[in-house]
From TrEMBL:
<protein>
    <submittedName>
        <fullName>Acetyltransferase, GNAT family</fullName>
    </submittedName>
</protein>
<dbReference type="GO" id="GO:0016747">
    <property type="term" value="F:acyltransferase activity, transferring groups other than amino-acyl groups"/>
</dbReference>
<feature type="domain" description="N-acetyltransferase">
    <location>
        <begin position="30"/>
        <end position="182"/>
    </location>
</feature>
<dbReference type="InterPro" id="IPR000182">
    <property type="entry name" value="GNAT_dom"/>
</dbReference>
<keyword id="KW-0808">Transferase</keyword>
<dbReference type="InterPro" id="IPR016181">
    <property type="entry name" value="Acyl_CoA_acyltransferase"/>
</dbReference>
<dbReference type="Pfam" id="PF00583">
    <property type="entry name" value="Acetyltransf_1"/>
</dbReference>
């Protein structure tokens, strides 16, 4: 599904454009994924695990644009990809298609400007319009800042997966499962 371009003003007065990324953003998206995956251990993948080609990313972005169940919204500041959020149908089976899975990331240099809150609001609004009844996510148990933001937006803790993530140094981190009934 396509999210039409929308200009917003961030906390510091900077203009930001929210829109669905398209094929022209594919290379930028790959670099963004590598960068955000290297800035914190809170991402599912390490930078070296992002091995998408531009053609593969073009297909992924096109699939999102042409989908009735998936949506991606990117935040651009002066043409720099600052943040990205997406929802996708958990499963298109009758018993499960009321559920959407949610993910979000923001480049570190753009933290604390309100981009995350804005993207979450937009995703939740779009989720309702798309007919979803609940939105679910997983968050690292030591990512307290993200958990607080999600709770601020009405997400509740629904469970924990012990040792869900094993970091390169051999330590384990639990995953907190959160959800919001729309």
């Amino acid at each position: 599904m396509e999210f039409k371009a929308k200009k917003i003003i961030l906390k510091d007065g900077t203009e930001c454009v929210l829109r669905s990324p398209n094929r022209n953003d594919a290379a930028k998206m790959i670099e963004y994924l590598k960068m955000t995956s290297g800035e914190t251990h809170f991402m599912t993948r390490y930078p070296e695990e992002i091995t998408l080609t531009v053609d593969q990313e073009v297909k992924i972005l096109g699939d999102h644009l042409n989908s009735d169940t998936d949506l991606m919204i990117a935040a651009f500041i002066n043409d720099d990809l600052a943040g990205n959020a997406a929802i996708s149908c958990s499963n298109n089976l009758i018993k499960l298609k009321h559920r959407a899975s949610f993910g979000i990331s923001i480049k570190e240099k753009y933290w604390n400007l309100g981009i995350g809150n804005i993207l979450i609001n937009e995703i939740l609004n779009q989720s309702k319009l798309m007919g979803y009844e609940q939105v679910e996510l997983g968050v690292f148990s030591d990512n307290y800042k993200a958990q607080a933001i999600y709770k601020k937006h009405g997400f509740e803790e629904w469970g924990t997966i012990k040792n869900s993530f094993k970091l390169k140094d051999g330590t384990y981190v639990d995953e907190i499962l959160m959800g919001k009934i729309l």
